[in-house]
Design a protein that fits this description.
Length: about 280
């Protein structure tokens, strides 16, 4: 077995890497205990040698701390990358998942909000975006914005009412697989390559779908909007909770996506258990 891995997230319980455990072990571990119980797993060498954690991203926001300028502290490597939260529809408050600490709560899609990472990525270069997301919209619109670029940029990720994830980043709708069951926390990672022109979505560590395009993307750095379209009438706002937003200036490999997802040990166990309970009902 490989070395044990762990990392402490600012203001959070200690997360330890947990890949897969039998369901009865998960249930036993959580029975009568808080979600914040620490779990330990000795990772196989192939995974243990990976170094991708939220803190290795250029931008990483846990929504736990605010800086003197009023923006939420970037705990990643590029400290001048800023995330701002404003509007009556956006609040940062205690999450319903204890292990997450605070989360961004977009509780009412009818209320205005503006959540933005300025100059987040170079449109024509490679990048990856990771986040935890929980939809709480009981009546989603035909299209719900999740990730959107401003200016000449396009919709990086939206979700149709039937659960299909779609990217319009290449000026063509690319289906990235379906997830019709909303209502629980999910870990999303979206990767974008330059040549070939490809976008891939991973859900809870597993590849969900990918798409390609031929159009040349707008040049330059792009502001990234979270949970809304730059033209409000084009799509519904996202309604629900978002946390652990990460912006990488590299394309995470499938193995790195799995490792990143597994690094959230307490959260992944609790979420998988919740899904098991729902499926059994």
């Amino acid at each position: 077995m490989g070395r044990r891995q762990s990392f402490e997230m600012a203001g959070r319980p200690l997360f330890r890497n947990v890949l897969r455990r039998p369901r009865h072990v998960i249930a036993y571990a959580l029975a009568g205990a808080a979600v914040t119980a620490t779990c330990v797993f000795a990772a196989p060498p192939a995974i243990a040698d990976q170094t991708v954690t939220p803190q290795t991203a250029q931008g990483y926001w846990s929504f736990e701390k605010k800086g003197e300028d009023g923006t939420y502290v970037n705990e990643g490597t590029k400290k001048d990358l800023k995330l701002t939260v404003s509007g009556e529809g956006a609040k940062v408050e205690a999450s319903d998942m204890t292990a997450l600490g605070n989360s961004l709560n977009l509780a009412d899609k009818s209320k205005d909000f503006d959540v933005k990472v300025a100059q987040a990525v170079d449109s024509q270069k490679v990048y990856s975006i990771s986040m935890w997301l929980k939809s709480e919209d009981s009546a989603p619109g035909a299209k719900t914005a999740i990730l959107q670029f401003t200016g000449e940029g396009r919709t990086l990720l939206y979700q149709r009412a039937d659960g299909e994830f779609v990217s319009f980043v290449g000026k063509v709708d690319s289906s990235l697989g379906s997830d019709p069951k909303r209502g629980s926390w999910e870990h999303l990672v979206l990767t974008k390559t330059g040549d070939p022109k490809n976008v891939t979505l991973y859900v809870n560590g597993e590849k969900n779908g990918s798409g390609t395009w031929t159009e040349t993307l707008p040049a330059g750095m792009m502001d990234l909007l979270i949970g809304e379209h730059k033209n409000p009438n084009d799509m519904s706002r996202f309604q629900g909770k978002i946390d652990e937003l990460c912006v990488f200036d590299t394309v995470l490999t499938e193995q790195q996506v799995k490792q990143l997802y597994a690094s959230y040990g307490d959260i992944t166990i609790a979420d998988e258990l919740a899904r098991d309970v729902e499926a059994a009902q």
